[in-house]
Amino acid sequence: MTIDPTLIKSSFAAVEPHGSAVTAYFYTHLFEHNPDVRKLFAEHLNEQQDRLWAALGTLVNKLDDTDTVVNVLQGLGRRHAGYGALPEHFPAVGASLLAALAHFAGDAWTPETEASWTALYGVVTEVMSAALTEEAAG
Ligand code: HEM
């Protein structure tokens, strides 16, 4: 399955008006299913909540601009080495991300939409993990 930018954009647009309820759902889901990652997020969760979703918004908006997307993801990946994130954390974060999107997208969430987000998150994981691993190795 390939990434369908139209489906990604329409589902993200359906979720966006729900604002901070989406981020709250995402973190509750993540920490409930993976209590061990909670400690990585320190006390800064409120600022952090908005930044993760702002970064996702940038990716969705720039989806057709591969160079920018890859640059943004490489920068994020390098910085995540300093947060203690590991490549094996990505599936858990992706599962909670998709759960939050599915919960708030309503009718915009279809099997095709889910497959498209799964493919996009696969790319995010690949590029961020590679940059993170490289950075962690020094
Ligand atoms: C879709 C993938 C992800 C995106 C878009 C994302 C985005 C962000 C952004 C924008 C920040 C704010 C700081 C910065 O810009 O460098 C951040 C911080 C952080 N992220 Fe991620 N992230 C992702 C995946 C992950 C994963 C897999 C983990 C592992 C558990 C993680 C853990 C953290 C931590 C611990 C912080 C610092 C929080 C703090 O300041 O307490 N992120 N992330």
UniProtKB/TrEMBL annotation:
Coiled-coil spans in chain: none
InterPro entries named in the record: Globin (IPR000971), Globin-like_sf (IPR009050), Globin/Proto (IPR012292)
Source domain of life: Bacteria
Metal-binding in keyword set: yes
UniProt GO BP: cellular response to nitrosative stress; nitric oxide catabolic process
Keywords: Heme, Iron, Metal-binding, Oxygen transport, Transport
Sequence ranges assigned to domain Globin in this UniProt record: 1-133
One term of GO molecular function: nitric oxide dioxygenase NAD(P)H activity
Family membership: Belongs to the globin family.
Protein name from the UniProt record: Globin domain-containing protein
Organism, scientific name: Kitasatospora setae (strain ATCC 33774 / DSM 43861 / JCM 3304 / KCC A-0304 / NBRC 14216 / KM-6054) (Streptomyces setae)
